[in-house]
Design goal:
Number of domains: 2
Radius of gyration: 21 Å
Shape: globular
Helix content: 25-40%
Structural class: alpha/beta
Number of helices: 8
Distance between the termini: 38 Å
Amino acid sequence: MEFQQQLKQYQENQENRGRLLISCPDQPGIIAAISEFLYKFNANIIDSNQHSTNPEGGTFFIRIEFECPDLVAKKEHLQSRFQSIADKFSMNWDLSLVHELKRTAIFVSKQLHCLRELLWEWQTGDMMTDIALVVSNHEDARTTVESLDIPFYYIPATKENREEAEKRQLQLLEEYQIDLIVLARYMQILTPDFVKAYEHRIINIHHSFLPAFVGAKPYERAYQRGGKINRRNLTLCNQ
């Protein structure tokens, strides 16, 4: 398929690109230390985004993408050498290769508009990920998903059988070596044990217009209020 060729081309083009994700207590010298480290390895910073919750006693977050010759061969050495900087600044950090796509599982219920949008973005090459499977508590999405040669699993999930359903879901996630879960209007409550198993690796696409219209029927209430802006809310699940 054309989009699979696009994915392959993307991976080939990104072979020497790395990504650093860092969080640590905010303090002077963080960016200088990272930049100097990358410079010593002849790496060129391509993109950088940073944020501090509070410059005095807050948490600093930064995401850096960089180009580095022969990065695949150098990765382990870079990781080993970077550890001293991480220790100095008390960093939580991860160095990954951009061409190694995240293996993603999508969870969906009856309403399919979020799923269809994700699949469209994936097909057009705007969402570079490896969609490994789709899980649903309804059969409605099967034809759409399987037409793209993506495995589809129907697992009935209710309040009464939630433990059994999540056990099967976790088995599939382990079997497919999933890195990331996207809840595309999956209308079930996840248990704390499930979230803990994939802590900070679950993204929920929320159908409300938070914080303006909290709760049920957000579209109707937004329409009644004459709302002019349509948006989606993405939240990282940690509880």
